[in-house]
Amino acid sequence: MEISENGFIFSDNKELLKVDSIHHYLSTESYWAKNISLDTVRRSIENSLCFGIYKDNTQIGFARWITDKATFGWLCDVYIENDYRGQGLSKKLISFMIFHPDLQGLRRYQLATLDAHGLYEQFGFSPIQNPERQMGIVIPNAYTAPAED
């Protein structure tokens, strides 16, 4: 699936993804995946439904869904390069993704965000109902190499 608007291309074609660019952003600029390895980024892309935004053959945005395409989807790794923020690209990307044919009819769409609640609320996301039912394992600094002895 691909759409073009105002010189930007939004696509779910994994062959267009610039994995090195995605890795660079996630490992150096994101707050959620600092120091993530290139191998981990590659594996995450291989096992997810991924979306990119491109301008003049340069990747300027990315997001992925971890999903079984039947019941559940977890939206993650959403970003727009700093030079392209403030142009409505995040909204366009979320809209492109949320209506993707592989994500229709799911029972639950979920995500975590530090500071983009307003963006996601526009698409129907809200605080988790019954959070006491939710559980998880969180490994702080998972991508930081342990110190050698």
TrEMBL record:
Domain of life per record: Bacteria
A Pfam family it matches: Acetyltransf_7
Species of the source: Pedobacter agri
Example of a GO MF term: acyltransferase activity, transferring groups other than amino-acyl groups
Start and end residues of each N-acetyltransferase domain: 1-146
Protein's name in the database: GNAT family N-acetyltransferase
Entry-linked InterPro entries: Acetyltransferase_Butenolide, Acyl_CoA_acyltransferase, GNAT_dom
Gene3D superfamilies given in the database record: 3.40.630.30
